[in-house]
Design goal:
CATH class of the largest domain: Alpha Beta
Number of domains: 2
Shape: globular
Structural class: alpha/beta
Order of helices and strands: EEEEEEHEHEHEHEEHEHEHEHHEHHHEEE
Largest sheet: 8 strands, mixed
Radius of gyration: 21 Å
CATH superfamily of the largest domain: Metal-dependent hydrolases
Helix content: 25-40%
């Protein structure tokens, strides 16, 4: 395939063309030429006002519900939703049926991914069926291209079991991803415990349930000298613990979701079930602390925690609604609306996750593989339901004004445009 990208601002600090406006020619999946102007008659031309290009973005924590829950999402619909959101790589949590806990399930994802527009990377389960009882076949899954290990939305509750997992991944040079959630502390909590939960009459879950797990897991990572990534951080105190751990040389990284930066527990006054997520939305003070962490580098990357649910799972009483919302298509627009600069967004969505999980950096230079995201960073728009490519519609961002549009991606020898 012959693709010509016209007059794109190159946003890639690792590229010799960083900060310049160039034409980029891509032939058979590789960057052939980067010039001020390129004449090519038989190319598929991409030409848009104020177009930016960066390394392809990476989402390190998403649920595509396949196999077992294809009524929520499938690998196909999830992949096209990812491309629409600017992601060329997506890490898939193992909370499927059957769970991704053996080499055959990993191979299923990897093989189906070969025919899809973006690269899908299975996260191997730490325990069988993600039940937190006995270790899964981690070594075999690593051989079959599992890039990280986690029980996904089921946090490992046993410290002894997590120590074994951390020791295991150290031997195979991998990373444990953990959502810090002590489920023994008020497991019936529906939202953040505080003034708002009391006013709404909803049982709350204290941020302490997250913070205790963060502190514990950091100690385990220090003891094992292994790599730990804490996903979905929502508490200011948790972030403080992580900042101290980094200063102490512990191999811990962390990510936050766009919705934890944008919404707070005060937004739940409408009882919108799309805002029922785990870890729960915290206070305005917590959200502000997370933003500081994003800007000062304590937060390493952004993870969407894309969690699709069918209509019945969300259109019900708040108590019975399933936790989670989709987030691939809204991620960039939310970060732009929050005022995060383009250079920092590219670092959070591309360079940092590639470093943490040992993915190729995909530098924009002649001869490199074309793994690119095309976007317009200043355009404001109202996000509407018809912009959703996911099979599910459970998002609280519908009707909100976002800033920054994804124009498309170049991935796997193909060009996928939103317009």
């Amino acid at each position: 395939m012959n693709i010509l990208i016209r007059k794109a601002y190159i946003q890639d600090p690792s590229s010799p063309f960083h900060g310049t406006v160039k034409d980029i020619q891509i032939v058979d999946g590789r960057i052939r030429s980067v010039e001020d102007h390129i004449e090519q008659n038989d190319a598929q031309v991409v030409n848009a006002e104020a177009l930016h290009v960066s390394q392809g973005w990476v989402d390190i924590f998403a649920d595509f519900s396949d196999p077992g829950y294809e009524h929520k999402e499938s690998l196909e619909t999830g992949a096209f939703a990812a491309a629409a959101g600017g992601f060329t790589h997506v890490f898939l949590v193992p909370n499927t049926s059957p769970a991704i806990h053996s080499k055959s399930q990993v191979e299923y994802i990897v093989e189906k991914s070969r025919r899809l527009p973006v690269a899908l990377h299975p996260i191997g389960a730490i325990t069988r069926n993600t039940e937190g009882k006995e270790l899964a076949e981690m070594y075999d899954m690593k051989l079959y291209e599992a890039l990280a290990f986690s029980d996904g939305f089921n946090a490992i509750q046993s410290a002894g079991l997590l120590i074994k997992a951390l020791q295991y991944v150290k031997a195979i040079d991998s990373v444990v991803i953990q959502i810090p959630d002590d489920r023994s502390i008020n497991p019936g909590g529906l939202m953040n415990e505080g003034v708002v939960s009391t006013r709404l009459g909803l049982p709350g879950k204290p941020s302490m349930a997250e913070e205790i797990m963060v502190a514990r897991d950091i100690k385990l990572a220090r003891y094992t000298e292994s790599k730990l990534h804490l996903a979905g951080i929502s508490s200011a105190k948790s972030l403080e613990y992580i900042r101290r751990a980094k200063e102490g040389g512990i191999q811990v990284t962390c990510s936050v979701t766009p919705y934890h930066l944008y919404f707070t527990d005060e937004d739940l006054v409408t009882y919108d079930t799309n805002l029922k997520v785990n870890l729960p939305l915290r206070t305005k003070k917590d959200a502000e602390a997370l933003m500081v962490g994003v800007l000062d580098g304590t937060v390493d990357c952004i993870a969407t925690h894309h969690q699709p649910h069918e209509w019945d799972s969300k259109t019900c009483e708040f108590e019975y609604a399933r936790s989670g919302m989709i987030g691939l298509e809204t991620c960039f627009g939310v970060l732009g609306k929050l005022g995060i600069g383009t250079e920092r967004i590219v670092e959070l969505l591309s360079a940092a996750p590639r470093r943490i999980f040992d993915l190729p950096q995909a530098t924009i230079k002649i001869g490199a593989e074309a793994d690119l995201t095309l976007f317009q960073h200043n355009e404001e728009y109202v996000f509407t339901e018809d912009m959703i490519r996911s099979k599910s519609r459970n998002t609280a961002f519908t009707g909100h004004t976002l800033k920054g549009r994804v124009f498309g991606v170049v991935a796997k020898d193909g060009l996928y445009l939103n317009y």
